[in-house]
């Protein structure tokens, strides 16, 4: 039996392991079940004959689950699988059709928080290595697993882990923690991720909430914050902060060619999210360019005053807004925050308090890398046809891996693009788990020979 046939014959085991993993809550935002889940992942690696250990930085920091298999036939080349075992909070619970930590299987789907992001993806990697070990007693190249527990809260300590264990983590290529599959079941081979700058702007105008009749005398902090935020971008999404785009790396001719070939069904996208038009009324090609390389300024939350049912005539004492900026290659989060501070001060809002939660640079792998061909060939064979994507619209700590390990990173996986990740009723498709596991087997084989 070869590795691909083993995957088919062992799907019941894959499903059972995924259900077991989903049933262990691991919500990093609440520090819920993190240690237990790390130990469970270590157990799953050991059960698949992958030597593993828990790596730690200091007390209170989620451990990294590290796994390694050295190849007998090709010990000079190393492929890393980067994943995470933490998940998003499951609230609101009442919107779940099945309990979020039940791992309920219905037809071709497994429901639960983390079913896709990222426990389903992790299981495909583990089972692909297991398939080789069970059928040949070896792997085509050295394999390393780096599985963190803080990805859903911004991977705060991943760079410290990478620096501390740089020699241990050394590799020649990284398969990223996920990869989307589009509505036509085509896997999207992603070459990069956007960066992120997450900030909170706040202001207090009085020591307590007051009767709204006093609005003729006391300034309303919500109005002032609204006025400040309004200076950050225009209605078409263009960021108005001076020099915000100054360092942006422009698309290459090859990038634009790849973007033009990438399919994008704008009508299906609009239907899925219930929107009638895109920001700036973007159409096909411009919409695709924006997803791949457009910087954003997004209000993630705005809080002030009374937000309960009914009416309450109150003048709030304070107001705050949470904003995330998506960054593109060559934008430095530290420089961008300085530009933001300078902008607010120049517009007369120097009294607004700025709190920085997270900063992450963007990363992008060159499409000419041989690693790209290794992955695409495997994806085409496993799924029938793949799509090359210059960069994912989301963010992860890819830049830290590229900078510290000096290894190209590529996203490929089983995440159906409408699988409701980060939302109620998240699910994984069993057919895609199967194809992705086979794809990982083929990637190892191709990578070992290139």
Task: Spell out the blueprint of helices and strands.
Blueprint: H1 3-9, H2 11-22, H3 34-47, E1 51-55, E2 64-69, E3 78-84, E4 105-106, E5 109-111, H4 119-136, E6 142-148, H5 158-164, H6 166-169, E7 173-175, E8 180-181, E9 188-190, E10 192-204, E11 210-211, H7 221-230, H8 253-261, H9 266-273, H10 284-293, E12 296-304, E13 314-315, E14 318-327, H11 333-346, E15 353-360, E16 363-364, H12 370-383, E17 387-389, E18 392-395, H13 398-405, E19 409-410, E20 415-416, E21 427-429, H14 430-449
Parallel strand pairs: 3-6, 3-7, 7-19, 8-20, 9-17, 10-18
Antiparallel strand pairs: 1-2, 2-6, 4-5, 5-21, 10-14, 10-15, 10-16, 11-13, 12-14
Describe the structure.
By secondary structure, the chain is of the alpha/beta class. The protein has 2 domains: 3-191 and 365-449, 3-Layer(aba) Sandwich (Aminopeptidase), CATH 3.40.630.10; 195-358, Alpha-Beta Plaits (2-Layer Sandwich), CATH 3.30.70. The chain has 14 helices and 21 strands. The strands form 6 sheets. Strands 1-2-6-3-7-19 form a 6-stranded mixed beta sheet. Strands 10, 12, 14, 15, 16 and 18 form a 6-stranded mixed beta sheet that branches. The chain has a 3-stranded antiparallel beta sheet with strand order 4-5-21.
């Amino acid at each position: 039996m070869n590795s691909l046939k083993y995957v088919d014959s062992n799907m019941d085991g894959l499903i059972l392991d995924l259900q077991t993993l989903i049933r262990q809550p691991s919500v990093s935002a609440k520090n819920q079940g993190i240690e237990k889940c790390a130990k469970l992942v270590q157990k799953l690696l050991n059960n698949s004959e992958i030597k593993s250990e828990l790596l730690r930085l200091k007390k209170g920091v989620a451990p990294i689950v590290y796994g390694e298999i050295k190849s007998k036939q090709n010990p000079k080349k190393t492929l890393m699988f980067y994943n995470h075992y933490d998940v998003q909070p499951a609230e609101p619970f009442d919107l779940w059709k099945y309990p979020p930590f039940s791992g309920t299987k219905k037809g071709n789907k497994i429901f639960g928080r983390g079913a896709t992001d990222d426990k389903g993806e992790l299981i495909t990697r583990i089972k692909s290595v297991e398939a080789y070990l069970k059928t040949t007693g070896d792997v085509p190249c050295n394999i390393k697993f780096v599985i963190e527990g803080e990805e859903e809260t911004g991977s705060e300590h991943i760079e410290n882990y990478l620096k501390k264990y740089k020699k241990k983590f050394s590799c020649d290529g990284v398969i990223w923690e996920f990869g989307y599959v589009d509505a036509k079941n085509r896997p999207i081979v992603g070459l990069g991720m956007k960066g992120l700058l997450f900030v909170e702007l706040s202001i207090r105008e009085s020591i307590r909430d007051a009767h709204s009749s006093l609005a003729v005398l006391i300034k309303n902090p919500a109005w002032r914050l609204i006025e400040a935020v309004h200076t950050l971008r225009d209605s078409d999404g263009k960021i108005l902060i001076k020099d915000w785009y100054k360092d942006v790396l422009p698309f290459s001719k090859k990038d634009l060619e790849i973007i033009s070939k990438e399919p994008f069904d704008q009508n299906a996208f609009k239907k899925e999210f219930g929107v009638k038009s895109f920001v700036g009324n973007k159409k096909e090609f411009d919409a695709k360019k924006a997803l791949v390389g457009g910087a954003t300024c997004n209000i993630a939350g705005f809080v002030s005053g009374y937000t309960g049912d009914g009416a309450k005539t109150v003048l709030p004492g304070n107001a705050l807004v949470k904003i995330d900026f998506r960054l593109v290659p060559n934008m430095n989060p530290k420089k961008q925050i300085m530009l933001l501070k300078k902008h607010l001060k120049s517009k007369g809002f120097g009294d607004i308090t700025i709190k920085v939660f997270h900063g992450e640079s963007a990363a992008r792998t060159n499409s000419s890398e041989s690693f790209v061909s290794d992955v695409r060939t495997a994806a085409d064979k496993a799924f029938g046809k793949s799509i090359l994507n210059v960069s994912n619209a989301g963010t992860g700590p890819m830049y830290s891996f590229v900078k510290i390990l000096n290894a190209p990173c590529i996203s490929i996986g089983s995440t159906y693009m409408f699988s409701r990740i980060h939302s109620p009723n998240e699910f994984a498709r069993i057919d895609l788990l199967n194809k992705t596991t086979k794809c990982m087997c083929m990637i190892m084989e191709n990578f070992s020979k290139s």
